[in-house]
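re: the backbone from monday

yeah here it is again, tokenized this time
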């Protein structure tokens, strides 16, 4: 598991505990764009190891070109992008600091699944829990032997709170 979604990190730690070295990777420096290239590199280093990256769409945009490498080098990682069309955690931090409304715009018109496909990476947009479960039930059992990457753009509502 490669994680770059701070608001979901506690849930991911609870649901996906690391049971072996490099079982749960997360950046501690606060920069954006870690998850996608980290997942590609991890899978290239250990090609039979299943790799899932969970990231927000705002973070994914900063390293989206990693999907080209995944597609062209046969890196069978699963990229789960939680898409709320904004930098929701950054919005909450701006509000918490007293700065008021964040100065950056939302980007609801950006389609990460379309962007992934433009890099040659298969992608699916998932708009419901049932659809997500169906896709994961199909993909996860053979994740360790996949040679084709897949991006799942999972629509989510923005978090209204963030407690770092």
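seq for it, each position gets an aa:
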């Amino acid at each position: 598991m490669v994680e770059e979604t701070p608001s979901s990190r506690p849930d991911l730690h609870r649901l996906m505990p690391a049971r072996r070295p490099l079982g749960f990777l997360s950046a501690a420096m606060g920069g954006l764009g870690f998850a996608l290239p980290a997942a590609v590199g991890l899978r290239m280093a250990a090609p039979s190891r299943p790799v899932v990256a969970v990231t927000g769409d705002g973070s994914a945009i900063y390293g989206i070109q990693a999907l080209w490498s995944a597609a062209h080098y046969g890196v069978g990682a699963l990229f789960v992008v939680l898409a709320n069309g904004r930098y929701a955690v950054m919005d909450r931090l701006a509000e918490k600091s007293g700065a008021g409304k964040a100065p950056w715009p939302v980007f609801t018109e950006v389609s990460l699944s379309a962007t992934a496909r433009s890099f040659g990476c298969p992608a699916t947009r998932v708009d419901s829990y049932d659809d997500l479960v169906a896709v994961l039930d199909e993909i996860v059992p053979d994740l360790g032997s996949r040679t084709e990457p897949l991006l799942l753009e999972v629509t989510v509502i923005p978090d209204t709170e963030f407690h770092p």
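The first strand starts at residue 2 and ends at 4. The mean pLDDT is 91.
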